[in-house]
């Protein structure tokens, strides 16, 4: 299952859509856009607006 990869521009934490983030309750295959707006980076607490899609 391929998906986009997103990186936090503050700390570099990576969210891979194909892997999800099970420790955060986000299932594999969950698109970044489908993550609730209240999501914050688990490393630095930056908001979703601090993430950029890699390879774009």
UniProtKB/TrEMBL annotation:
Q: Which organism is it from?
A: Halorhodospira halochloris
SUPFAM superfamilies xref list: Rubredoxin-like (SSF57802)
| Cofactor dependency | Fe(3+)
* Protein name, entry field: Rubredoxin
Q: Which family does it belong to?
A: Belongs to the rubredoxin family.
Q: Which PANTHER family match?
A: RUBREDOXIN (PTHR47627), RUBREDOXIN-1-RELATED (PTHR47627:SF1)
Its UniProt pathway annotation is:
Hydrocarbon metabolism; alkane degradation
Q: Which InterPro entries match?
A: Rubredoxin-like_dom, Rubredoxin_dom, Rubredoxin_ET
Q: Name one GO biological process term.
A: alkane catabolic process
| Record bears the keyword Transport | yes
Where in the numbering of this chain does the Rubredoxin-like domain appear?
A: 3-54
């Amino acid at each position: 299952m391929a998906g986009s990869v997103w990186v936090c521009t503050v700390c570099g934490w990576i969210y891979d859509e194909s892997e999800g983030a099970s420790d955060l309750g986000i299932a594999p295959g969950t698109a970044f856009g489908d993550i609730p707006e209240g999501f914050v980076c688990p490393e630095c607490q930056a908001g979703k607006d601090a993430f950029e899609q890699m390879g774009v």
